[in-house]
Every structure is written in C-alpha cells, then in structure tokens.
Structures
1.
Amino acid sequence: MSAATEAGPQPVPIRTSFLGKVFTGFAVLAALSVALSLAGRWFGAEIALGGHTDSQALREIVIGNNVLVVPENMIRLEKARRDGVAARLDLYVRWPEMDGYSAEAKDVFNNVGGPPRVLFLGFEEPMMSRDMSGRLEPIYEALIEKPGTPGPGGTIIYDFSPKSGYLNEQLVVARQPGRVPFVARCLTGPGAEQTLAPCERDVRVGDDLSLTYRFPQHLLADWHALDASVRALARKLIRPAL
C-alpha cells in the first residue's frame, strides 16, 4: 500500500523538515499496516501447525538495553527458545490468565471451541519516535474520517480516509481524562475474519523497548484491563540490563 500524500487542509505553514518526518511516518505506518494483515493470516496458520511446548524453563533474551526472562512456553517460535541477543522476540499468551502453553490450555492455543483469546506480543527496539498513543495527534488525526462511531467499552471507531494508505483498517480510540488515550488499529472485512488477532496496539516498555500486541477484536470491550495486563506482564518479564 502506498503512503498518504495528503493530510487534509493545512492552514498554518509547517516547516519542510517537519513535513518530511510526518510523511516518512505515514509511509512506515502504511507498510506496517500491510505487515499486520499478512502477519494475521500467518498467525492463524502457524497455530494450526503446532510447535508448542509446555516447558517452563527460563530463557534470557537481550534486546537493546533490556533483558527479558521468559519461560519457553510463552515463546512462540521454537528457534527463539534460546538464550542470547535477538533483534525481536515473539510471544503468545492466553487471556485473561496471561500464561503460556500448557496441556490445560491446549484448546485455547489451538483455537478449539469458544471465541479466540490468544494474545501475540512482539518486543523489539522502536522504529518510530512515538508509540501508537503518541501518534494519534500528529499523524492519525489527519488520516481519519470524523465523526467516528461508538464502539465497545466506550471507544470511538474511525474509518481511515481513502487516501490514507490504510485499506481495510479502522482506528479505535478511547480517551482517558488526564491520561494518554488508548489507540489501536483493527482490520476489517475478510482480513479480520481470517486472523485470530485482527487488532494491534504498540506501547513503550522497559528501557526504550517497543511492545506490539495483537488481540481478538471482541476484547475491545475490556480494553482497559487488557492494556493493563499486557503492561504488567511486560514489567514482570523485563529485567534491567547490567
């Protein structure tokens, strides 16, 4: 998908350097949008193939200035279940227990019976200067169509403008007085139906570490507890680097 080339009326002159940064941000975000759609389909296929482990042996993975101490049954890819330095670490946990794979939880991780409730977490060094909440005002506000429509859990759901580059996606926002807003993007249409986790949000955790988590859309109704639980898990897993 191509990035947006228009961001609506701009009555106040803006420095060229700032515009360049904003348009670069649009391009990166649009590329991530494509990646979300493709990754969502891949996640569903990967779970069906298996590859789980119930081992709770701890692994120490270093990303940037952060050390993550993670049980193997939370690490999604077999090749990543090792100690050492990594550019990225992908985990999966069940909601609301926030634990990894086990014999007791096998039906949840294999998506057998009931609504999906597996969360996918990805840790890596940030590619952008702001997380998703921080991008609402300078970037997303120029790309969405208003007014939005009421969504679950007190959220407001906005369609992206046709020129935004975000095809088949919506922006979900929950404003919190005195706090940064909850902001997520969700796939729509066939893309949403083909993945177990069509919604995505990224936050900053640890020592300048980006955590992207993907989740089933029905969990938007409980977004506050969801976001708090993900952040709490991150705090539990991340150790200060020596």
Note: The two ends are 42 Å apart (CA to CA).
2.
Amino acid sequence: MKIITIVGARPQFIKAAAVSRAIQVFNQRHRSKKQIQELLVHTGQHYDYLMDKVFFEELELPNPDYHLGVGSGSHAKQTAMMLERIETVLQKEKPKVVIVYGDTNSTLAGALAAAKLNLPVAHVEAGLRSYNRTMPEEVNRILTDHLSTFLFCPTDQAVKNLSKEGIKDGKTILVKKVGDVMYDSVLYYSELAEKKSTILQDLKLVGPQSALRHAPRRVHGSPVPHMVQGAVRIPNYYLATLHRAENTDNPKPLKSILSALNEIAKDVPVILPLHPRTKKMIKAYRLFSEAQGIKLTDPVSYLDMLKLEKNAKAILTDSGGVQKEAYWFGVPCFTLRDETEWIETVRSGWNVLVGRGEKRIIEEVKRNERRKKPPKKKWIFGDGKASEKIVRTIMT
C-alpha cells in the first residue's frame, strides 16, 4: 500500500516522525505480507534550518521524497502554490491514502488536493476547535475535517466536536479516538533530550550555586519524568514562545506581551526562542526596548525545547503543542490567548488562559507563585500508542 504523508511545519515533523516509526514497525512485523510504502512530501512552509532541517536530523526522518519549495507568502498565495504542486505529485504517485497533520496551510492544501482527486484523506489531530474563526488555523481545521475519510482524534472532546458538526463514524467516514501522536514523541524523545541537550548549560541556566531537589518520578501517572531522575536543579527561569499572527502581526498585543515578559524577567529570567515571524515584527515595530530584559535566542531544536520545557518554572505560550507538553511534564502553563483548542489542559488546572493584556499576564504569573499544583487528573491524551493505532486502522 502506498501512503503519501504531507508536512510543512515543525509541529508536523514531530507528529509525522511518530507515525513513520509506527509504519516501520508494522513493516517489520509483516515482512511476508503487504507492506506500507510511505512517501514524504514537504511543502517547504518552514524552510529555515532552525525551523526545518535540524528537526529532520534530530527526529531521524528520511529526506523528503518531494520538496515543493513553496516558502512564505500570503495565505492565498501559499495555499494555492501548495495545492497546485501537491496535485501534481498525487497524480503521479496515485497513493491509496494521503495523511495530513494538524492545522497549517500545508494541511488544508494536502487535504483539498487529495479530496479533489477522490483520494481518502487521513487527518491526524482531527476534531480540535478553538471556536475562533479569526484564526487561520481554525479555518484549516474545520475544512480539513470535512474533507477527510479517516479522522483520528486525540481526545474525547475532539470526537464530540466533530459530532456537533455532523461528522460521525459511519459507512464512509471513520472517526476514531487514538490519542495524541505528540505524546508518543514526547515519550520517545524525552530521555534522549536529557542525555544529549546542553541547552541549560549553553544559556547559563544552571550553575554550582543552584539548589537541588528530588524530582517526582511520574506526572499524572505517565512514564514521562518531570525532570531528570534523582537530584535535579530547582527551575530558575520561565520559558516563553510567541508566534501566532494575532499576537505578532499587530503592534499593540505584541508590545503588551513583551512588556509583561520584560516585567516578569526582573524577578526570574525569561527565555524566549524567537520564531522568525516574531523576530521580524519586533524589528518592524521597533519593540526591542520592550524586550530588553528578556533573554532572546534563536529558535531551538526539538530536543532542546523538550529540555527547556521540562525544567522550566512555568511556560508562557501561544502554541497549542507547547500547552500539551507543559501538561505532560507537569509544568504550569499560561496561554497568551483568549481561547484554546486544548481545553482539557485548562479544565485540569495546569493551564490558564491569560490573554494578551500586560497586567493580567503579570498578575497570573505572580499568583502562580502562591498556588498549589493541581491534583493529578485522569490521563486524557492516550497511552502513547496513538501512531500504532493510526497505522493499524488504515491498514485494516
């Protein structure tokens, strides 16, 4: 069976790596039977080394069979170029299934091109909703779900969201809760990150004077360690990530968020790996003075990011993936948005929606200093075998 996987942005590289490993395992177990041939198509949506190639290297993903070289551009231009080039590949290769991930323009273009050619679309991370249609990602999610044949949901809530829109398991559509493939990746790469990443030393976030404590062995009953087993250093920094258009493409929210991070950094260091878009807009709006107290870095690799997340005092982010990773590591999270598609992390008490207002962000972070960590909740993102379930379901 020939499958085409379409990726374009760094979160998709992480998700695709998990499913590709599961495909390899499936092929090894069924050597005498029908094998899966996976072809990887990279749209080129992310093309900078620190956002692209380093992820392929760390995740041990094979080089793409097709690199479409689309690059940046307006939503219309970028999606249209992807659509045209993906269609050419699909017409040539004639796959049985096309797999798309998440909610980017690459996701929508892949789903639309496949659906127009009457090819089954498998959407990994189906059913997510923020119910904010001003977000390009929300539009991409909705359209992709309505084009898909296989809808692989990470949570029960995602299944319920699809049901509300009339997308239910039936004769021609399969809706299945499989768990979160990013959790698969965190389980697989977490220990490797602890062994290989030197990011804490590189950024001088640990030193001989740092206090030590004993880390808990489990978070929420999962096998992911909150920190290195045994004696570890007490977190002495906040980690921040900022990349969404609604936070960066308008000077008012960007200035407000940076000012809040700058104020927080007066007491505890704040590390902000700069997404290319964020760096560009800070420069365009001349907001470097608002960020003068923040430790700005280049984008970091996946292993470095896991190490930073796992050892942070708390995380401030507008990223969906980082919200979940904070939850899995048992690190308090403050989401720089008014809504989230990962509502489970909020209901559990580990994630707080703080919006973009400077005062609210600062108040919530200070309040966290006095808060007790929430009790452990039922594990809601699966058992770390989502990728295996996806591959087995498609083959069945």
Note: The two ends are 12 Å apart (CA to CA).
3.
Amino acid sequence: MARLEVENLTLEVPARRLLASTGLTVEAGECVAILGASGTGKTSLLNCVAGISRPTLGSVRIEGAVLSDLPPAKRAEFRLKHIGIVFQFGELLPELSVVENVALPLRLLGVPRREAEMRARDELDRLGLGGQAASHPDSLSGGEIQRAGIARALVHGPLLVLADEPTGMLDEENTRLVAGLLGKSAREWGVAVLVVTHDAVVASAADRVLRIRDRRLIPAGDFEPAQTRP
C-alpha cells in the first residue's frame, strides 16, 4: 500500500471543474513533483490531499486512513498530527524566534515547551540552521526561511510532507538547495513528499515527475530545467 493514494479525484466549484478523475500515489521515502502553470489546479489538488478541501468525487487515502471521508474537525486533527506543509513564502510567525516557529507543531500537539524546542533545535541542526535558532524571521534570508519551513514541516515526524511552490521567492542557487532538501527528506527520513511547482529545477530533484494538464495528471516526459526559470 502506498503512503498516499489519490483515486478518481474530482473537484468542482460553481460553474467550474478544477480537477477531473485524477489519480496519484506516493510511497514512503519518495519525492514526487507535479509540474504545471498557474491556474492548472496544482494548489487545488494539494488542498484536497491536505484535507483542507473535500473532493466532489473520489478519495484521498494516507497510510490507510481515508482522509476525504472525515468531517472537517477530524481532517484538521489528522493534518496536524500526520502532515507537514511547506508554504510558498515560509509563513514563519514574525513574533516568534526560529526555534519557536519550528517547535510550533509540537506545541500544538501538547508537547512541553522544553522538549519541543529541543527537538526543534535538532531539526534545525540537521538543516544547517542551528546557529539561527534564537534569531527572528526578519533576520533570515529567503533560503533560510524556507529551510526553517522544512524543519517545521518535519519536526513532528509526519507521514506526508506537502510543499506548495516552495521556491517561488528564491534565486536559482537557493531553489536548488531547497529542492534538494525536500528530496533528501524523503530518502533519509522515510517521509512521503509531494511538491507542486511551476519550476522544472525543483522537479528535477524529485524521484518522479508528473504534469497537470486538462485537469488530470500525466507523466511529465522530458523537460529542460534551465528553460523554465522565470
């Protein structure tokens, strides 16, 4: 059984179909990238996988649990416990230090502050940010913010990490660094990673690449990373 299984997923909003009969699997330890231009449904798919949106038809199954069948409160609880999310702009809370930001998922799960921050420091050390633990987000570079975001997504040992255009604000050097860390997270920590992106530089770091086209996922085929940079 795959860690993530999406079957026949269809998502409709009034007067518009965003996704149609979409299927996807991601194994534990695998990083899968979905390529697509803005407006093709990438974020809509990610929202369904995260349990933020409920599909019109089809199912989302994570480690055997049918997330799409749960009521909203249960989906939110599942997401907190078992899913890590890396946002496009990091979304660190400016009033908290870096280590407090990374520890936040653990604190929301009821882990005592001292233990949560110790585990957060360990995660920051693994991603080369141990020296920035006491800093605040406004003193970090864009690449450092995204690395802290990855640490926050991993700190509670999730089954699945979702990344939504995680390099949109980064230069090419930091894009390659962050994309590489997502792939490394899958391989070294056994988490399933799903990345949606418009950038083939990011996709090139994944184990498998799909494109979203005409509201469905298809094999990406060959692509040239340098030609897709904005």
Note: Strands lie at 4-13, 16-26, 31-35, 57-62, 65-66, 83-86, 160-164, 192-197, 208-213, 216-219.
